[in-house]
Amino acid sequence: MLRLKSKYGCDPLVSTQRSKLQQRRAKLNQQINRELRLRSGAENLYRASSNQKVKETVALELSFVNSNLQLLKEELEELNSSMNVYQTESETVSVPMIPLGLKETKEIDMTVPLQDFISEHYSEDASLYLNEIRDFMELRQAMRTPSRNEAGQELLKEYYNQLYFLDQRFFSPHRSLGIHFHWYDSLTGVPSVQRALAFEKGSVLFNIGALYTQIGARQDRLTLTGIQNAIDAFQRAAGAFLYLQENFSHAPSLDMSSPALSMLVRLMVAQVMKERDVYSLVLQAMSVPLLKDYVPFSWISMVQVKTHHFRALAHYYTAVALCDCSAMSDEDEDEGGEIKALIQVHTRRPEKLNLHDPEDMRRLGKAHLRKAIIRHEEALRLHGVCKMLRKMDILQEVLSHAHACSLEKYSEIDQEDDFCEVAEAPEIQSHTQQKPDITTPDFSGVRVTDIFHRLGPLSVFAARNRWVRRHACLVRGEAGLGLTLRGDSPVLVAGVLPGGCAAEAGLREGDYIVAVNGADCRWAEHAEVVHALKSSTERGLELDVITLQSHEVQPVHM
To answer: Can you give the CATH number for the domain in which 78 is found?
Structure first.
């Protein structure tokens, strides 16, 4: 196993609740993977065997495997429903947020595949690049356990940016590198394996979004700074999931499918806006056929609870405003403006009520309180149905307190001799001052240096290019070396004088000079190479040049 050096933004060993949860998720994913392999093998044996006794034995084994698999998946779902560990550690009381756990991945030893490619494609001594290979593997290992802060985000983005260079250096269209990327579905633990680097990049991008949800959930939202930080984090999470949805297709795991990502974007936006109608849209997204049996029951329950809770609060605060307004004196000059605002807050104008009449305002306020109490009670009922939500003491406290406030206000304005017809309260218009600003991931803010830059400039020394390396000996003549140069890193032979020294040595226009007298000059500037060529002795110059081969497809003659 790779020994991980201390890495800024990596938190592999800190025994916090979150890291323990993540370690348990990783172990469960491995157990699920093992049971799936056992089931696949048993099913193949059952189909292939014609012996009835063997079939009975295999069928019994399959029942045990399926039972174990179901228990493991239920345990994983319970872990994925553990929202408490990601919430703020302050003692303030607020409605909990829904965070995501990170996708897990297997450790990969890339040493042999990368060394083989360096030897075969770049014709280099691969042993000289062991440090670079080790550095890349350590970076990958570190990004599996990012810390829950901005440093952890920078670590994930650093690795994501390094994947660009890895792709350019080692993933050739002409051959397979032989590296398999194993990632587990974030909610079910079902493993997926692909050789495509796009799968690795997409999974890292998913974790960038997931980590932002955890950062957002841990903010103290009773402070202005905490609210702003939570909004920023959930908007960035939405941006990561939307970017993944728009740029990566054919996802092998359900958590990265378009319907799942669309649902996650809506969920993040809802947690920014805290609007009941937006939560209703989230519930619709969770109910599509592909996701209805996939999304954790605790998530669905939490969204339903929040929908009813926020609708109840809308009715409650409208009722408070109506009751306070009804108690205003007739001389208050601003009364007309407040009444107009109270009418506009409804989806339709209240019927059979004159809101300039204080008694009608009180009746409408009372009707809103009745609706608020019904919504509060439904939120509490849904909370009680879900085992995971029952464990969230903060949520129970928030819902009970809101319910108690509505009951207290209702008893305050209720009159025993109130024989008037019961008023009907219209629904409240959805409105929020916080408009979502989905923030696309900015990878340019985390600048990285290509770990394998010693292989040479990417414009030439890339996996997609093929070249021939040649050795040439030049002896300066009366007319000089007979060549002209252009560019930097590496310097290009722009022209060769016919009959000159360079032409006789076999140099051609378009060659790149990569070494002069044994000194590597792939990264050298134009002036440095010119100086080295002018410093030639009577014995001449030893040049190493490469000639790029054309990738043009030859026509097929029929």
So the answer is: 1.10.287.160
- Mean pLDDT of the 469-479 span: 85
Distance CA 112, CA 515 (A): 27
pLDDT in tens, 143-201: 999 998 999 999 999 999 999 999 999 999 888 899 999 998 888 888 899 999 999 99
Any residues with CB less than 8 A from the CB of 337 and at least 6 apart, and which?
none
Q: Which of 506, 487, 488, 500 is nearest to 545 (CA)?
A: 506
- What is the overall mean pLDDT for the chain? 86
CA distances from 209 to 413, 438, 464, 522 (A): 47, 12, 31, 39
Using the predicted structure, report yes or no on whether residue 256 has a pLDDT greater than 70. Answer: yes
Residues 259 and 130 placed together within one structural domain of the fold: yes
CA distance 13 to 10: 9
Give the domain range for residue 35: 1-82
Closest CA to 494 of 476, 482, 480: 482
Would you say residue 442 lies in a domain? no
341, part of any domain: yes
Distances (CA, A) of 255 to 14, 229, 420: 27, 26, 55
pTM of the model: 0.83
Domain identity same for 365 and 232: no
What residues have CB less than 8 Å from 36, skipping those under 6 apart? 69, 190, 191
Q: How far apart are CA 316 and CA 369, in angstroms?
A: 6
The DSSP symbol for 109 reads -
Give Cβ neighbours of residue 464 (< 8 Å, ≥ 6 apart). 168, 172, 173, 551
Most confident by average pLDDT, 59-63, 93-97, 206-210 = 206-210
How many domains are contained in the chain?
A: 4
Dihedral angle at the C-alpha atoms of 266, 89, 390, 280, nearest 10 degrees?
Answer: -20
If pLDDT is split at 50, 70 and 90, which confidence band does 22 have?
Answer: low
Q: Residue 269's pLDDT band (boundaries 50, 70, 90)?
A: very high
Q: Are residues 215 and 346 in the same domain?
A: no
Please check whether residue 191 lies inside any domain of the structure: yes
Pair (70, 147) in one structural domain: no
